[in-house]
Amino acid sequence: MRRGLGGVIATAAVLMAPAASGQNEIAPSLPPYVGAYQPRGVDEIGLWREQDEGERALVNSPILIRDEALSAYVRNILCKAVGADRCGAARIYILRMPIFNATMSPNGTMRVFSGLLLRVRSEAELAAVLGHEFGHFERRHSLARFKAQRSGTDLLSWAAVFATLGGTYQSYSNFSNIQLSVYGQLFRFNRDQEREADLLGLGYLNRSSLRPQAASTVWQNIMAEQVASASARGLKKPNFEKIAFFSTHPPEAERANILAALAVPDGVGREDGVDRYRAALAPWLSTFLDDQIKLNDFGASDHIIAALAEYGWTAPLLLARGDLYRARGNPRDLAQAAEFYGKAVEMDPSLPDAHRGLGLSLIKAGRRTEGQVALRRYLELKPSASDAGMIHMLVSPSGG
After folding, report:
1. Do residues 30 and 97 share a domain?
2. Are strands 91-95 and 109-113 parallel, antiparallel or unpaired?
3. Are residues 265 and 325 in the same domain?
4. Are residues 259 and 324 in the same domain?
5. Count of helices and strands (H, E) across the chain
6. Measured between alpha carbons, how far is 316 from 18 in angstroms, rounded to an integer?
7. How much is the average pLDDT of 249-278?
8. Predicted local confidence at residue 145, as pLDDT
9. Residue 191, exposed/middle/buried by CB under 10 A (0-12, 13-18, 19+)?
10. Is position 400 within any domain?
11. Are 307 and 186 in the same domain?
């Protein structure tokens, strides 16, 4: 365990040194790709079998998004980032989970969460995250963590036995110190692997046709979302420079700054693929926004919607913002929700859910007659809606 930890820490320290010293360097060049790693020994083969079984369950998962066009598009972005030779080792699954995340297992299974697709704004930003995850795969970080955790827990098991045999205050105190040291090293090990994967991901982008500076933008956007979330909850601004002892990831500010410093300068003029990304995401945008709103994080959701509107407000974005404000339900929120729904209806009169939201907001705000008009239009556009019975009661003369 000690040798494995030291190797990764030393590698990460060397790779991070140029950014720390302020030198004008770029991410290190990539070695030739040697192909997917093949498991060796009983433990590794067992781990691979677990991953294969997990992939078989994933194929039948209810949260798997079975959209061949979207899956092919995301795979194409991975190939743009890491190259055709490397991306052939990955099998991509898109999961309907409204959190910012993607993972890649040692057997080549890459999971991309819908919350990630909602938050990144271009092909270049998505490529930065997918490249980071492929970096974990190429460096076999999951396998290294497996071995380190096994060694650490073995050590703790023996230490607990000796502490019990000793039966003294000092023996229990020594065990507590060993426990803290082992867990601290494991979390530090994870952080160093994240740093190495960041640099590998940036190395892929530096060689690609996409703008590598987007890697830093991803973390800047995540920090802005966290600030918005905290502000809406009445909390103080998060400290992005601070690292917790038991954190598995480096601070966001560190990642944003280093990735910006190590991107090739001539990459600034490369494409981001914003328009292509927006077009690919469009069929799922309303669904992903609805999932995000249901997380009940008003500040983060409002920030995401506003960020998506950077290139112009659309009826689906106005609908989502109306849903967000109506869900919070304060009197002022209902008035604003009705305004957003009204603008959505103006932009797209055929959008039934905008009429529905407008009607419900107006009724809750005490403007029943206007609200009933909007709800009747909703029923005209969507007569077989699942909530048609409830809406009919609201628009009837005695409804309410």
Report:
1. yes
2. parallel
3. no
4. no
5. 17, 3
6. 45
7. 92
8. 60
9. buried
10. no
11. no
| CA 205 to each of CA 83, 136, 295, 298, 400: distance values in angstroms, whole numbers, following the listed order | 10, 15, 32, 33, 57
Average pLDDT for 184-207: 77
pLDDT digits (tens, 9 = 90+) for 173-187: 543 554 545 344 544
Q: How confident is the model at residue 163 (pLDDT cuts 50, 70, 90)?
A: very low
Angle between helices 123-138 and 68-82 (to 10 degrees): 70
Nearest to 33 by CA among 192, 200, 189, 195: 200
pLDDT at 147: 55
Q: Give the total residue count for the chain.
A: 400
| Same domain? 36 vs 178 | yes
Residue 199 and residue 319 share a domain: no
Most confident stretch, 16-25, 128-137, 341-350: 341-350
Strand, helix or coil for residue 31: coil
Close Cβ partners of 94 (under 8 Å, ≥ 6 residues apart): 64, 65, 67, 70, 71, 74, 112, 113, 114, 117
Domain that holds residue 185: 2-269
**pTM value > 0.70:** yes
Number of domains in the chain: 2
> Is residue 81 in a domain?
yes
Answer yes or no: are the C-beta atoms of 122 and 273 closer than 8 Å. Answer: yes
Within this chain, do residues 339 and 220 fall inside the same structural domain, yes or no?
no
3-class secondary structure per residue, 225-273: HHHHHHHHCCCCCCCCCCCCCCCCCCCHHHHHHHHHHHCCHHHHHCECC
The pLDDT, as a whole number, for residue 278 is 96
